[in-house]
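Hi R.,

As promised on Friday, here is the backbone we talked about, encoded as structure tokens. Could you run it through your design pipeline when you get a chance and send me back a sequence?
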């Protein structure tokens, strides 16, 4: 389980007057093997911290995902997300290519 809350602020452009917005992002996953992990990821933006947007205006996406630990250094994460509100993209694909650094 991971929880990655974000407080976002636009300094220029259409959302610059909104102040800080809240995005409660999280992931549940299970290691099926040492190399394959399956999970569910949630990405959302609920609006300004001073007063959340109505649910229809919030952005919320759910992604079934797969993580492939292809070596000790490399990880590939991919998923296909579905928007659950009118303000969210209906269908989106994502992929993250990760490299583990030794410091």
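Update: got your reply. Pasting your designed sequence below so it's all in one thread:
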């Amino acid at each position: 389980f991971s929880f990655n809350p974000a407080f976002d602020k636009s300094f220029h452009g259409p959302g610059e007057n909104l102040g800080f917005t809240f995005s409660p992002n999280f992931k549940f996953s299970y290691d099926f093997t040492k190399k394959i992990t399956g999970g569910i990821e949630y990405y959302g933006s609920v609006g300004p911290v001073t007063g959340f947007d109505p649910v229809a205006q919030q952005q919320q996406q759910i992604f079934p995902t797969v993580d492939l630990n292809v070596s000790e250094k490399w990880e590939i994460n991919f998923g296909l997300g579905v928007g659950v509100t009118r303000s969210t993209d209906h269908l989106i694909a994502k992929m993250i290519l990760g490299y583990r650094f030794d410091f």
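One thing I noticed while checking it: The radius of gyration is 16 Å.

Thanks again,
M.
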